[in-house]
Amino acid sequence: MASQLGRELVPLIASVQTQRALLALAQPLGVALGSSRAIWTSRSALSEPQKSEASTSGAGQQQSQQQQEQASSSASSSEQQAQNFYNNFKAGFEDLKNKAGAAAGAAAGAAGGAGAGAGGEPAAQRLIQTLAQDLRETLLPAQDITSATRAYTGPVAAATYDGPTALVLAKQQATGWQKVWNSVSEKLGTIPGVANLLNLKVTDTSAYKKGQELVEDLKDKYETSDHPVVHKVEELKSSMFTGSEASRAMREIRVRDQAFDMNRFVQSVKLDAPVVVKAFLKHDLDTLSQHCGPELMERFAGIFKHFNEQGLFEDPSILFIGDVEIVEVRLMDDDPFIIAQFHCQQLKCTRDKFGNVVDGDANTIQRVYYFWGLQQERSPVVTAEGKVLPPRWVIKDMMWQSMLALV
């Protein structure tokens, strides 16, 4: 088990953050050992002058002996501190190892039961893997989350085509079977009876026309019928062949972005939430235009016009942002549309251009619920370096509702 734990923790020990933590843990021991080594070196270095001074005068010998006694006492105290630190460190390590072994044994006993030999080893392996995964998630950096709503403003790859664009009619080449049939038709076309049969069209017969009229009448009666059985059949047919609206929307999302992940999408929306909300509170149209659609920007311009004329704006301080929740996934104008919800804790006050509070109270906290309507663009973006960026999610609509916070 110890060898497996060592193999699991080798990548963690190789990381910079883990090395720094181990270095910080080993520094007190190194300082203690270094001080004791320096004291012993100074003690050995003082031994030679003490011998020479002993032959000259008794007073110098007595002074050297006092210095030697002080050095030995300090060295013994340093050695004692180093030994105590080592003993504490070793005891803590042994305690941690015993706890890990006991937990592994308990997990193996619970999983194995009577057949502990068959079930103990997988349970211990799972425990080691869980411990290594927790350490890896704590010490190693997480994956970078990029913005889902911000428009790309950098250089893009130029896609130009210099070839012809006119449509040209081309004669389709006949297959071998078609060539044989054409030759047989030409030979049999000289016989009057056979020629009439070859030129006969089923759609021109009276029987076909009467049957077509009957089918059209039945179709009209079925479509205009109000019978509950007919409606039930149509609902079943729609659910079986087309699926729900959410499934069709997700299928369209996968077609446009094959690497789409709902969890990463939620994290990306939470990354954009403070930027957009703060720009909304500060009436920053330039920042909002990078995330929102043109229709929503027209609404924002009308809302901000009254406040800007008076030089007022809401306090942009955001104290907390809650988790993002997906309310609905649907299709709108054949484009995927996702409604996301989150809440922010903000200060309930309005300030002027000098920062003075003109309405509300700077000490009052309000909880504001925001609803975003996100629409996926149709095509991805290819940068000048050849990197393909997934289709952007544009904020097409935004609603908000405030209430007094209970915290």
From TrEMBL:
Localization: Mitochondrion inner membrane
Database matches in SUPFAM superfamilies: NTF2-like
Family statement drawn from the similarity comment of this UniProt entry: Belongs to the Tim44 family.
GO molecular function (one): protein-folding chaperone binding
Protein name (Swiss-Prot/TrEMBL): Tim44-like domain-containing protein
Main location: mitochondrion
Region (Disordered): 44-81
Keyword Calcium: no
Matching InterPro entries: NTF2-like_dom_sf (IPR032710), Tim44-like (IPR039544), Tim44-like_dom (IPR007379)
One GO term (biological process): protein import into mitochondrial matrix
A GO term from the CC aspect: mitochondrial inner membrane
One Pfam family from the record: Tim44
Composition bias type Low complexity, residue spans: 52-81
Transport in keyword set: no
Keywords: Membrane, Mitochondrion, Mitochondrion inner membrane, Transit peptide
Residue ranges of domain Tim44-like in the record: 246-387
